[in-house]
């Protein structure tokens, strides 16, 4: 008799990712232990202790040794709740009990820039990047589900940030595709069921139900209202929208990269007439790339900034320079756009 369908689903998802991102090492000699020899590649599961990430860690612990891969785990203590250090230590104990090795509990200091959710996310990814580099991990697996993807799409829609924002989370992201999200095709309930049938203890972060956080309101208020009005297929439809939007955004990004050299003059300035001839979606991507190259931080550069720069091309009335984040000024001069950091 095979495993429960939920357990089989999470294991298959992780197995596919391991096959995709790794050249599996030969199966380890049994005498070397369940995690393989010293040359086996290392894959880490990022685990908060919640159902999604505990299911992920359990699936990685099961599948990795069968491919000659070492399986480790990391948990991040954001220091935002009393006793969070004890909680992180407890999660680390659970990961070791699954057979993961190495396991680390990482402590971070959360700043204030961009709001509490963004600041916590930035601190978390910085810690995961550092751990992956230090441990030489081939990949870091994240437990985001199809429900998380649907929430991300709704948040992007509310921001009005365009196709790239609607494309949600990528299956692979980070330096060299370091971060992998095996569960984007699975719903949250599947992960929770997998934990239940395996008797895995899970921790429900109270922040996930705190209405002070935007994503929490989307999860507990907005999505249930949409499902009640439109039916249970809303989450799946939003996730499908993310993939279609990502395909479109990738194609437009590639077009912008290919055309950018042809719209620059010998000095590196952008030629207005050539930009004007481009489709708006491509032109604005060229402008965004140019702004980032000039020194404007990508995370602070929003659609409204690029729209203002675009009006120097499509609605020229002798406007003054446009000031972008990072002290980058954009001026139109003699049929050209000049971007300089002041």
UniProtKB/TrEMBL annotation:
Q: So what does this thing catalyse?
A: cytidine(34) in tRNA(Ile2) + L-lysine + ATP = lysidine(34) in tRNA(Ile2) + AMP + diphosphate + H(+)
One GO biological-process annotation of the entry reads:
tRNA modification
Where does the tRNA(Ile)-lysidine/2-thiocytidine synthase N-terminal domain lie?
43-221
Q: Which parts of the sequence bind ATP?
A: 48-53
Major localization listed first in the record, in broad terms: cytoplasm
Pfam families from the xrefs? ATP_bind_3, TilS
Keyword Ion transport carried by entry: no
Name the GO cellular-component terms: cytoplasm
- Per UniProt, the enzyme's principal EC class comes to ligase
Q: Where does it live in the cell?
A: Cytoplasm
**EC number assigned by the record:** 6.3.4.19
The UniProt keyword set, sorted, is: ATP-binding, Cytoplasm, Ligase, Nucleotide-binding, tRNA processing
User: In what residue span(s) does the tRNA(Ile)-lysidine synthase substrate-binding domain sit?
Assistant: 270-337
User: Per the record, what about its domains?
Assistant: The N-terminal region contains the highly conserved SGGXDS motif, predicted to be a P-loop motif involved in ATP binding.
**Similarity comment text for this entry:** Belongs to the tRNA(Ile)-lysidine synthase family.
Identification of the protein by name: tRNA(Ile)-lysidine synthase
Could you tell me which species this protein originates from? Answer: Streptomyces caatingaensis
């Amino acid at each position: 008799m095979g495993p429960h369908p939920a357990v089989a689903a999470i294991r298959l998802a992780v197995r596919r990712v391991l096959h995709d991102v790794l050249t599996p090492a030969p199966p380890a000699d049994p005498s070397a232990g369940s995690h393989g020899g010293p040359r086996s590649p290392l894959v880490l599961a990022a685990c908060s202790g919640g159902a999604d990430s505990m299911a992920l860690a359990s699936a990685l612990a099961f599948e990795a040794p069968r491919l000659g891969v070492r399986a480790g785990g990391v948990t991040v203590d954001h220091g935002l709740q009393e006793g969070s250090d004890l909680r992180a230590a407890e999660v680390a104990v659970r990961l070791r009990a699954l057979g993961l090795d190495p396991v680390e509990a990482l402590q971070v200091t959360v700043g204030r820039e961009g709001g509490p959710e963004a600041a916590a996310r930035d601190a978390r990814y910085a810690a995961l990047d550092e751990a992956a580099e230090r441990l030489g991990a081939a990949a870091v697996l994240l437990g985001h589900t199809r429900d998380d993807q649907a929430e991300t799409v709704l948040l992007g829609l509310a921001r009005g940030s365009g196709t790239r924002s609607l494309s949600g989370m990528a299956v692979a992201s980070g330096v060299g595709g370091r971060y992998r999200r095996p569960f984007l095709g699975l719903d949250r309930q599947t992960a929770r069921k997998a934990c239940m049938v395996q008797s895995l203890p899970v921790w429900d972060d109270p922040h996930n139900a705190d209405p002070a956080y935007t994503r929490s309101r989307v999860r507990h208020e907005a999505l249930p209202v949409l499902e009640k009005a439109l039916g249970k297929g809303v989450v799946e439809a939003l996730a499908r929208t993310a993939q279609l939007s990502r395909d479109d955004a990738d194609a437009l990004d590639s077009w912008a990269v290919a055309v950018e050299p042809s719209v620059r003059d010998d000095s590196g300035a952008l030629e207005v007439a050539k930009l004007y001839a481009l489709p708006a979606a491509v032109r604005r991507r060229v402008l965004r790339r140019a702004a980032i190259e000039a020194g404007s931080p990508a995370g602070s550069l929003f659609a409204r900034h690029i729209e203002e720069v675009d009006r120097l091309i499509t609605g020229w009335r002798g406007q003054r320079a446009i000031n972008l984040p990072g002290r980058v000024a954009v001026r139109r001069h003699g049929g050209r756009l000049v971007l300089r950091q002041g």
